[in-house]
Amino acid sequence: MLKMTHLSKVYRTEVVETYALRDFNIDVKEGEFVAVTGPSGSGKTTFLTIAGLLETFSGGEYHLDGIEVSNLNDNARSKIRNEKIGFIFQAFNLIPDLNVFDNIEVPLRYRGMKAAERKQRIMDSLERVGLASRAKHYPAELSGGQQQRVAIARALAGSPRLLLADEPTGNLDTQMARSVLELLEDIHREGATIVMVTHDPELAARAQRNVHIIDGQVVDLSEDPRFHTVHAEHTGTTA
Amino acid sequence: MLHIKPIVVALKRHKAGTVLIALQIALTLAIVCNALFIIQQRIGRLSRPTGMVESNLLAIQNRWVGVDDNATGPLIKSDLQALRQLAGVEDAISTNSFPLRGGGWSMGVRHDPDAKKPVSSAAIYAVDDHALSTMGAKLIAGRNFRSDEIVWVEQKAYAASPQIIITKALSDKLYPNGSALGKTVYITDTARPSTVIGIVEHLQVPWSGTWSDSFSDCVVLVPTQLTGNFGSYLIRSKPGQLAAITATAPRLLIKNNRLRTFSRDRGVRTFETVRAQAYKSDRGIALLMGVVCAMLLAITAAGIVGLTSFWVGQRRRQIGVRRALGATRHDILGYFLTENLLIGIAGVVIGALLAIGINLWMVTQFEMARLSMTYVAAGVVALLLLGQGAVLAPALRASRVSPVEATRSV
C-alpha cells in the first residue's frame, strides 16, 4: 500500500543542508495499522506529509497503492490525495465557516461527485462516527472530541485506501482521546489501512506495528542504543 | 468547477467585509455610470457645430469710450467699411451677439401675440445683409436681407423687425408639419408681426450652458444694426488669412478711431478661442468627473485587493486543508474568483438600481437627460472585470499555498 525506498528529504538553505529524512525505508501493507513514533524533530511529520503527498521528497522512491508518485504533477497529486488518502489532523482542521455537513462535503465536491451520492456518503460517515444529529452544527459549536470525529467522518466519506493520522488525540483529553482511538480501531477492523504518527507510547501500543524514527531514519528498536536510553527513561518515569 | 453554495455559506459568515465591498462596488457603479454619462454629454457639447465657418472667423468685442450711444452708428459704419476693405477679409458684420459668445438676447417666439407661452425661445442676432456670407451660414429657403431692409436703431429702442431669417430648428418647432417660410410670427409679446423671409440650415445660440439646451439651435436673424457703446464685429477671413487679419484688424480699428477699448481676454479672439472659452467649464467638469471616476475605480480595486489579501492571509491554513483534501491550484483560484464574482454581482445589481435612481433624481431636479442603459450595462461589465482583475493577484497567491500548510501548528 505504502512503500518508501531509500527516500530522502533535504531542506536546503544557502549555507546548510538539513536532512529531515535520510535513506528512509518503510513498507506498509494493505489493512495494516501502523504507528509511527519518535522524538520531536525526528522526522515523523515530514514522513507523514510526504506519505500524504502534501510535500515532495528529494530522492528515493515512493509507491502509493502501486503508483510511483515522484514524477506526478500537482494536479495528479491532488487527485490522489482526494481519492486515495484520508487525513486526520491533530488540530482537526475543520473549516470554521462551514457546518459539519458542508465540511465533510468539501473533498467530495473536489472529486466532482453528484449531490445525491455526496449526501448519502456524508450521512453514512456521520452515522459511522455517531454525529448524524450534528450535521448542521458549526465546528465552534462542537467539543474537541466531536470535531475530531467530524474530521474522521470527512476522511472516511471519500472511502480512502489509506488513512493518515497526525497525532489524532494530541488536542484531546483522556476520555475523548480514548473514544477517538476506539473509533480508529473499529475503522481498522473494517479493513482500512491506517498510518498514525504519534509520540504517545500508550497510543502506539494499540497499533498492530510500531515504526520508530530517529534522525530521519527508521530504526530497529531492539538494536538502537539510543532507543534503550529513551526506553529506559520512559520506563523509569512510568514505573 | 464552481462551488457556489459553500462559498455563499462562507460569505454569510463574513457579512461585514462582504457587504462593505458589495456596497463599494454598488456606489462606484452608480457614480461612475452617471459621471461617464455626464462626461459624454459634456464632450458631446464641446463638438456641437455652430453652423458657421469657424476656422476663418475672428471676433472683436468693441467698447466705445466717450462716445454717446446715439452717435456710434456712423462709427460702426466706418469700421465695417474699413474692415470689409482690409486685405485678407472676406466679409464682416457688426452684431449684438454670435454663437458661443456667451451673452446675447433671447426672446419668445409666438404664433399669436396674445399667447401666454411662446412656442420657443430663440436667440436674436441683430445683423445686416452681410451676415450669411460672414458667418458662412447656409440659406436653405427664401432669401437674404436686402440692404434697404437694414434699419439702424439704438439698443433700447429695438422693436420687432418686419422681416426675419430663422434657423431650420426654429422653423420645425414653429411649424412641425411644414415650413415657416412666408409665415408671420411674433417676437416677444409685441403685436408687431415678423415675416419669415429666409431659413438657414443651422446656427447656434450664444450660450453653451445646459439651460439653453431646449432651444440651442433656435436663432432669429433680424435686419437691424444696433447702436450703443458696446458691440461685436465678426470678421471672416479669406482662407489662410486668419492669422494675418487677427493682427491687422484690431490695428485697423484703432487707427480708424481711437475712442475704443478691447478687453484683454475677450477683445480679439479667433473662433477657436471663442469655442475654447465657451466650453471651458464643460471641459473642466468632464475632467473633474473623469478624475473622480478613476479615483473611485482605483479605490474600489484597492478595496477588493485589500480584502481578498486579508482573507487569503486569514485563510491560509484553510486553503492548505482544502489542498490536502484534494483541491487543485485551479480549484483555489476558482474559489476566490467565484467568491469575488458573487460579491461583484450583488454589488452591480444594487449599483445598477442606484445608478438609475440617481439619474431619475437628476432628471427631475436638473433636467438632465435619461441615462442610457448602455452605460449601465457597460458599467456592470467593467466593474465585474475590474473586480476579477483586482482579485487575480491575491487569488493566485492563494493558489500557491502548499497543502503542507494544513499540518502547520496554529
Automatic annotation (TrEMBL), chain A:
Q: Which residues form the ABC transporter domain?
A: 2-239
Q: Which CDD domains match?
A: ABC_MJ0796_LolCDE_FtsE
Q: Which residues cross the membrane?
A: none
Leader sequence range is none
Q: Which residues form a coiled coil?
A: none
PROSITE patterns referenced in this protein's UniProt entry, alphabetically? ABC_TRANSPORTER_1 (PS00211), ABC_TRANSPORTER_2 (PS50893)
What are this entry's molecular-function GO terms? ATP binding; ATP hydrolysis activity; transmembrane transporter activity
Which keywords annotate this record? ATP-binding, Nucleotide-binding, Transport
Q: Which cellular component appears as one GO term in the record?
A: transmembrane transporter complex
Please report which protein family the annotation says this sequence is part of: Belongs to the ABC transporter superfamily. Macrolide exporter (TC 3.A.1.122) family.
User: What protein name does the entry list?
Assistant: ABC transporter ATP-binding protein
